[in-house]
Amino acid sequence: MKLHYFKILLFSLSLIILAHNKNKSYITIHTPTTTSRVLIECNIYMPNYDNDPNMNFVKENFHKQTEQRFHEHDKRMIKNRKKYKEKCDKEIQKIILEDKVEKSLAEKVEKCCLKCGYGLGGVAISVGVLGTAIVNVLKTAALDGAIETAISKGLTEGAAMGATKGVAEVITGLETLGINKLFTDSLGSFISTANYNETSLITELVNIRYMMTCKTSVPAVFYNPNNSMCNIIETWSLVEGPNRANVLAKTAIGERITKVVTGVKTTVEAAKKRATEKVTAEGIQTMIAEVNATYAIYQNAIIASTVAILVIVLVMVIIYLILRYRRKKKMNKKLQYIKLLN
User: Fold this and answer.
1) What is the 3-state secondary structure (H, E, C) of 173-197?
2) What's the CA gap between 239 and 230, in Å, rounded?
3) How far apart are CA 194 and CA 176, in angstroms?
4) Is 40 helix (H, G, I), strand (E, B) or coil?
5) Any alpha helices (H) in the chain, and if so which ranges?
6) What is the CA radius of gyration of the chain?
7) Is the Cβ–Cβ distance between 59 and 37 less than 8 Å?
8) Are 319 and 113 in contact (CB under 8 A)?
9) Cα angle at 60 between 57 and 66, to 5 degrees?
10) pLDDT: is 185 or 41 the higher one?
11) Which of 78, 98, 80, 101 minimizes the C-alpha distance to 90?
12) φ, ψ for residue 318 (rounded to 5)?
């Protein structure tokens, strides 16, 4: 602007010359009626108006109003800052409280999951180890009991089978001697598993029937002297030798029966042994199979329980790791925000 100062003055001079042109009398010169107080831009600090009371009044009024407005603005700013600071403090306290609650809850959940994992892990080990050991001990005891039961059963059934075999062999031996001819009923009606080896009892029964059949007519129902066994038993009563002598028929009958019973004992013992071994072996196999089947269920239950507990432990550990990762991620974000705010 200062560079064109002289050009502007020259231009105004030409305008004045034109305004005072005699050839154009209708042009009138403008006469200012007010005093201009406009400051020149190029010389804004010129002291032309320092002594002007109106200008001084305007300036003072302007300064007062400006100062008042600045003071009001400062008061409003202080008030707003205080208000927003209180609001921010409340929000910060709320955020801190929520963060503490959330952090405490997350830590409690993490610790709970971790403790549950540790506890259930110990339970799984206890169930797996102690349960299996207890089942094995019980299984061994059950197997021992089963074997004893099978042996006892084998002995009982073997004795019964041997006795049955003994009865059959004694009856066969007596029939071979022809003693069954003295009886109208079968020999099995009075020879049983309880008395098949009692020689004296069988001898007494046969002797009584011999006497009733061959020697006495009382009762007449059994008397039959023509029975072939009468002569046979009488021949038994003769002792062989140069001087043949008679012995009691009861003694002769007892000797024959004793030979039969004695010969049957070996057969009975062999049959008893075979039957005992067979029944014992079958019983042991059956009882072992039952014990294995029973305790296999317990072992499967222990395995299933252990696997279920381990799965729960794994889930607890996964939950713990997820919660810990999320908490660390949130903490890292908060630290980044704090760094940005600082």
Assistant:
1) HHHHHCHHHHCCCCHHHCCCCCCCC
2) 17
3) 22
4) coil
5) 5-19, 53-126, 132-177, 199-210, 228-236, 249-341
6) 68
7) no
8) yes
9) 135
10) 185
11) 98
12) -65, -45
Helix axes 53-126, 249-341, angle to 10 degrees: 170
Summarize the confidence of residues 77-99 as an average pLDDT: 82
CA 152, 154, 160, 162 torsion-angle sign = negative
Q: Which residues share a beta bridge with 238?
A: 246
Query: Rounded distance, CA 291 to CA 152, Å?
Result: 17
How many CB atoms neighbour CB 275 within 10 A? 20
CB neighbours of residue 173 within 10 Å: 18
Sign of CA dihedral 233, 236, 242, 246: negative
For residue 307, give both structure tokens.
Answer: 């696997």
Backbone angles phi, psi at 234, to 5 degrees: -65, -40
- CB 119: neighbour CB atoms within 10 A? 13
Domain boundaries, the chain: 137-300
* Residues 120-130: tens digit of each pLDDT: 777 767 766 67
pLDDT digits (tens, 9 = 90+) for 290-304: 888 887 887 788 788
- Residues 290, 139: Cα–Cα separation, whole Å: 11
DSSP symbol at 241: S
**Both tokens assigned to 253:** 């009958």
13: tokens are 């001079």
Can you give the pLDDT at residue 141? 81
Place of tokens 């296999």: 296
* Positive/negative CA dihedral, 33, 38, 43, 48: positive
Q: CA-CA distance, 40 to 236, in Å (whole number)?
A: 182
Please give the structure tokens belonging to residue 263.
């010969």
What tens digit of pLDDT does each residue of 232-282 get?
777 776 555 444 445 677 788 888 888 888 888 888 888 888 888 888 888
Contacts of 279 (CB under 8 A, 6+ apart): 150, 153, 154, 157, 158
CA distances from 299 to 110, 127, 153, 295 (A): 34, 11, 29, 6
Distance CA 272, CA 156 (A): 10
